[in-house]
Amino acid sequence: MTENFFILMNGIKNSSLNFPTVLIYSGLDDLSFSLCKKVLKKNCRVRIFSTDKKSWRLALNQEQLRNTKISSVSFGEEVPSPSYIIYLLNRYKLADKKSSKFQKQEARIVSSVINLAKKSKTKALFLLPLHEKTKDLLSDLYEKLGKDFLKSAEANVILLGQTLGLYHLPSEQDVFDTMTREALRGDAVNVPTGEAPLSSSDSTAEAVLKILFSFGGPQEISIVGPEISFPNYFQKLLLLNPKLIARETQNTYLESPALGQKIVVAPPNDEELLEAFEPLVKRAQLGKGRLKFFKKTKRALAYFLFSLLLIFVLPYLVLLSGIGFLFGAAVLAQNQRLEEAQRLVILSQKVAMTSKSGFSTLTRVPLAHGFFRVGLSASDILTRGAEIGKHSLLIFRRSQGVAETLLSDTYQEEKPAPEDIFLELDYIYRELGFLQGEIGGLGEKLPSWVNLDGLLATISGVKEKVYWAGEVASEASWILGDDSKRVYLVLLQNNMELRPTGGYIGSFALVSVEGGKLIDFEVQDVFSADGQLKGHVEPPLPIKKYLGEAGWFLRDSNWDPEFSVSAQRAEWFLDKEIGVSVDGVIGVDLEAVKKLLDVTGEIELVDFSKKISSKNLFEETRSQIEENFFPGSIRKASFLTALSSSLLNKLSESGNANRFQLGKAVISGLEERNIQIFLHNARALRAIEGLGWEGGLPDNSCTAPCLGDWLGIAEANLGVNKTNYFIQRKVELSVTLEPNQVKRNLTIIWKNTAPEELGEEGRYEAYVRVLVPKGVVFGGGQKRIDKSIVTFSPDQDIVRAHQEAGTIIEVFPGESASLSFNWISPAPWNSEEGEYKLTIRKQAGTAADPWDIRIENILGKAILQDPSFGLTGPAEFGYNTFLARDFVSRVYW
């Protein structure tokens, strides 16, 4: 801020007379104004050095000093030498100003005053407030003044108590000022006990001028008023507002002791108090008016901005609420609260249409079209999504009706038509196509950093599943025997004795459905059927060599890892052994039963005095099957019959199971190959293959420069025991991409946790095959059993469209073992681009085993991947995953 001198001259006509000049360094307050008036009345010229030119001009004009001539010069310019100098530091500034900028500014002014006083040998008064902060200021002042100047009696330091008069500046630190401010606000006034000095600014100014125009005197002088009690001051404040209320408080006033000679001057009288209060009252009233106006303006502006914001944001808030309703409906549906879910879906659709109407109107607003057209597209998407949700609930209801009819013991005249499910799925398939297009269009309107590719890929995957599910639904009447009875062979595969399609076939069931109802479920022991086979069937070599079976029977018919092949072979054995033809085959392992028990809860087998849950299923089944078993025994079949019947009864009981969770459990079993299906209906079978529920081998074909690679493991327990209950498995795969070929190394690690005291009964003997596409070359393998390592040449075979390499492995209780296979194949890519697609097939009957997958890149090119690698290095990329389902990876460059 620029500091200015204001040269104020009284109205003396003869300006050539040599009148004394008083230079006052001060801002406008009650004491500086009193000093100015009184100096002018003494026929002196007054020059005021201040940063507040505007306040001084207004004050002098208002006090009828208009004949005073006012001019200004900038700080630092040469000014005539004054006769007297007064430096006044306002009490308000000292108490309330805390910034370093203020301190530097005052220090500069004090230095200027001292230099001018020394240069012109002019008497100078330094007026400082009697305040606790004055001590530091005094020591600094004395240091700058110097001993010689002080001894010359040309400088006096005057400490001033609290003053009150016209243009008083209240301080937040002063008790009198605090009480006055509370009174002006109309608040209850805090009145402390005790007293403090208070003087009139006019009487204080008279005392100061007396010292100024006197010769000599003490260097330190304190000018204060008489002690006035705070309660008495409150009585004077009642002149402002007779309705004021006093509130007694503790005295927080800290008296600053006077220094040097003490001069007591008169206190302000009532007239002076009113004169001092009048501008403060006007200022308070003006402030209240301004505050009221400001509050009204602020409130109006806030309402306007809020309304504007509401107009812009409300449609999006409505849209978000619609999305929330749709998600809420999904949660309710999962918890079997279909009616509430239906209401939320309808509400979501209505909300979406409301937001669409708002967005449609707002897109006409100039400059806002782009902002609102995104919301308009999103509203269309939500409307369609809600419509899909409505039809999904219909499918769920109708599917539930079909399942209840299938398991019901009573005849139902009105049965749900599976064809209706097909129509709903077909509608959803078409709507998903439209939804894809709308989301793709929305992506074009969004910023480039918003990527909807993942969402579009998810919808594409759902759309494909919906299509194939519709194809299955179109043949549901055939599957459920609406035209004639259907008989299905259910292979009860015990995955505690692992086999290529899931587990050893210790028992099987013949299931008959007709008219959409389950009419028969008969469990049989496989040995009863195998004992009726006439003639000899040559088994696969590993069964003959390691299992010691001279012939091939139904119990070992699932040697081929492709379920459709093993299913047809099981059908052949069933026909030859007991003369039964079936319409399809379903493979089920114990893990699928465990998933259902997780939902239904515990079931009771009355005949066996057992309670079976998902936690003890494996142990109880193993106990019932292995203990006291001999060929021809019906104990195993009886146990499995009781287990199946009790589970079916639990599933059919209304309210005893969450249908949605049961559906999820069944689908999970299908996708994890705990359940596999083969049907003698071409359209339905093709749809099941499309859904990946047929237990087939991958078809990862792609054209050059792409290599479609896949691998699977077919592990068969040939130890005639249920040791897989104790087996832990881990797999490591390394793939090296080279310019001309691809190398793979696969290591399977087993740990047998069976108690060592089981001995041979706990020994795990398995024949392990690696399944890969045709056209690869296998190298020698490596086998590690406990601490010994041997190499081996795997048995190799080409089976249909794939290639196999296998060998036997033994793992004793408490020990570990591993097998390593390696193979290579030519690479079809060129020097510019290429792609490598890898599918890892999960074997049916296995748990979610950990896989460590590494892809080493020595192509000399940067590669991209989908999905992104979890582990990366300079030239190596990898995944750590649990293989619950087939794993698919793609790298390209």
Automatic annotation (TrEMBL):
Q: Which residues cross the membrane?
A: 300-333
Instruction: Write out the entry's keywords from A to Z.
Output: Membrane, Transmembrane, Transmembrane helix
Organism superkingdom:
Bacteria
- Put simply, this protein is called Tetratricopeptide TPR_2 repeat protein
Origin organism is: Candidatus Woesebacteria bacterium GW2011_GWA1_45_8
